[in-house]
Amino acid sequence: MMDRRMVLAGAAALAARPGWTQSDPIAALVDQVAREALVDTVHGLTAFPTRFTEHPQFPVVEAWVHDLMASQGDVTRFAFEMPSGKTRHNFILGDASDTRGVILIGAHFDSASEISMTSAPGANDNATGMAAMLEAYRILSGAGLDKSVAAVAFAGEEQGFFGSQSVAEFARAEGWPIEMMINLDMLGWRPPNPAMPMIVEYDMGNVVPGNDAASAAFGQMMAAMAAQYTTLNTTHTDIWASDYMPFEAAGFPAMGLYDGGVEDPRYGTSRDTPDALDFARLEQATRLVIASVARYCGL
Fold it and tell me: In terms of C-beta density within 10 A (0-12 exposed, 13-18 middle, 19 or more buried), how is residue 220 classed?
């Protein structure tokens, strides 16, 4: 599998500048992104000393995530079992079985560090992904799109995608019409070079070859949306090592957005705190998700 560290060494792109008119309905959507909402979600999640899935107090984190998501609509709770025997939960907003077709936006809300049982704030990994997912859902769910948009929050990612595995297996068994699974994992790193690209990940050949083309097409479209509706540069890599993998293996087209943050010395440590984040970059990533889903849905 391709190493994300290798990708960043030679990646370069021309600086993108938004180019829309006031009559552009996608521009009207992306302009609804509220940075304060992103900040609030990140600070709310990082207020827990740790969100380690195996921690005895993790059900308190789950309750907070459930209530946050329930403020936007009806939430479905999906129980799964960790290898330790502990029961944990994923949460889904929206109708993931809508026969019009479903765009499923996912992010994990658990965290880990070198001292996971005592301190794992997980600001970039992955409070930022959760914040972008919820803000994108808030805006897209009210946009009158011709497909369903659903949002899923996963636990158990840091131990090996146990939460997403359970949802992907259920989705396959139930025949959910998921046309694209978009995974958001780390979106707010402040890189040393501000022009460093956001990484659009798409399926370049993993378990199921039949879903590669749809993933590649969406990824390439997302890069075009970045140039039109954000200030982000982009590059591409394969999908790997996050919650899209069980969905790809279940046969669903899957892709993701990622900021290259494994290069950050704070990555995976108890120093992954909100003070180091670039909330402007997180805001641009959120705009990119919204623009891409809206365009895919025919807006």
Answer: middle
Asked if residues 146 and 297 have their Cβ atoms less than 8 Å apart, the reply is yes
Give exposure, 19-55, as e/b (b: 16+ Cβ within 10 Å): eeeeebebbebbeebeeebbbebbeebbebebbbbbb
Q: What is 102-163 written as a DSSP string?
A: EEEEEEE-----TBTTTBB--IIIIIHHHHHHHHHHHHHTTS--SSEEEEEEES--TTTSHH
Residues in a beta bridge with 87: 81
Q: At what angle do helices 279-296 and 35-46 cross, to 10 degrees?
A: 110
* Rounded Cα distance, 102 and 96, in Å: 6
The DSSP result for 178-201, as a single string, is EEEEEEE-------SSTTPPEEEE
CA distance 227 to 233: 7
**pTM of the full structure:** 0.93
Partnered with residue 123 across adjacent β-strands are: none
Q: Is the bond preceding 126 in cis, omega lying within 30 degrees of 0? A: yes
pLDDT digits (tens, 9 = 90+) for 229-249: 999 999 999 999 999 999 999
Q: How many CB atoms lie within 10 A of CB 88?
A: 24
Contact assessment for residue 202 and residue 239, using Cβ atoms and an 8 Å cutoff: yes
Question: Where are the extended beta strands (E) located within the chain?
Answer: 75-81, 87-93, 102-108, 148-154, 178-184, 198-202, 234-238, 254-258
Residues 3-38: tens digit of each pLDDT: 333 333 333 333 344 454 568 999 999 999 999 999
Q: At how many degrees (to 10) do helices 212-229 and 279-296 cross? A: 120
What pairs with residue 43 in β-bridges? none
The phi and psi torsions of 49 (rounded to 5 degrees) equal -55, -35
User: β-pairing, 178-184 with 102-108?
Assistant: parallel
Bridge partners of 258? Answer: 199
